[in-house]
Design a protein that fits this description.
Blueprint: E1 7-8, E2 33-39, H1 52-59, E3 63-69, E4 82-83, E5 93-94, H2 96-107, E6 116-125, H3 128-136, E7 139-144, H4 152-157, E8 161-164, H5 174-185, H6 195-200, E9 218-219, E10 222-223, H7 233-251, H8 253-260
Helix pairs in contact: 3-5, 7-8
Bound molecules: adenine.
Length: 266
């Protein structure tokens, strides 16, 4: 794969003033939610985001995805992006000058108000609340690390927020970036056909989702709970609420306890 600019969801235009290998994308679309991803592996995008609802929304220009390949910002003939850790130890650290140049390039094309986030297992845990917040911003700039991560001075200098998608270590931030973008993009206006489905689902009201069933009415000797076939909308809503509460209490006592302290919990 070449280091040519890559764009997803619109035609790429190459302004001629900047060196080609530093141009990752066209200028931002006027209104579309603008996701930027700084990465050594631009070919990992759009990945799953190019499919289904997020992919359709990309084509419809409800959002745009700009990859900023890190390699062209590297040093010397080999475009080195990393070096050994100061003080010794295993692995390599991404150089602050290289990452700094990529960040400057990305931010020069990003709207003010779009957060700058580094995907890292030591970051603040990603949540539905953070996804909702991201969806209200003009977009986001995500930094994917590899190896032992970023030089701390870059994080401090640009006041980069660190975000983790869970307590496990991935090889790099690319999968985590796709998780975050998926969670945010589906909340953008017009992306999901049915507005109710975001409202009713898990986490919107702090509860896990109740079980769902569909035809056939009997499968492997198992039937659908009678109440769901009763046509009684009030009873169905009550049953679902009870199921949600029971699941949340038993599976996620942390969510359940947080919920009980909320004033609006009835
Ligand atoms: N990069 C490596 N592991 C990660 C995680 N758990 N969350 C976010 N970014 C990561």
């Amino acid at each position: 794969m070449s280091d040519a600019p890559r764009s997803h969801g619109r035609k790429t235009i190459r302004p001629s003033l900047k060196p080609r290998d530093l141009m990752s994308e066209a200028p931002a679309l006027a209104r579309a939610w603008h996701a930027q991803v700084i990465t050594l592996f631009p070919e990992a995008f759009p990945g799953i985001l190019g499919l289904s609802l997020t992919g359709k929304a990309l084509q419809q220009e409800l959002w745009q995805l700009q990859t900023v390949p890190l390699r062209p910002f590297g040093e010397g003939k080999h475009r080195n992006v990393d070096d050994t850790p100061a003080g010794g130890g295993a692995g390599m650290v991404l150089r602050p000058d290289v990452m700094g140049a990529a960040i400057e390039h990305a931010r020069s094309q990003q709207a003010p108000g779009a957060p700058l986030i580094y995907l890292s297992p030591r970051g603040k845990p990603f949540s539905q609340e953070m996804a909702r917040d991201l969806a209200t911003r003009p977009g986001v700039t995500l930094i994917c690390g590899r190896f032992e991560g970023l030089d701390q001075r870059v994080i401090d200098h640009y006041r980069i927020a660190e975000v983790s998608i869970g307590d496990y270590v991935l090889t790099g931030g690319e999968l985590a970036a796709q998780v975050m973008l998926d969670a945010a993009v589906r909340l953008l206006p017009g992306v999901l056909g049915n507005a109710d489905s975001t409202e009713e689902e898990s986490f919107s009201d702090g509860l896990l989702e109740h079980p769902q069933y569909t035809r056939p009415a009997e499968w492997q000797g198992r039937t659908i709970p009678d109440v769901l076939l009763s046509g009684h909308h009030g009873e169905i809503a009550k049953w679902r609420r009870q199921q949600s509460e029971d699941l949340t209490r038993t599976r996620r006592p942390d969510l359940w306890n947080a919920l009980k302290t909320r004033k609006d919990f009835t």
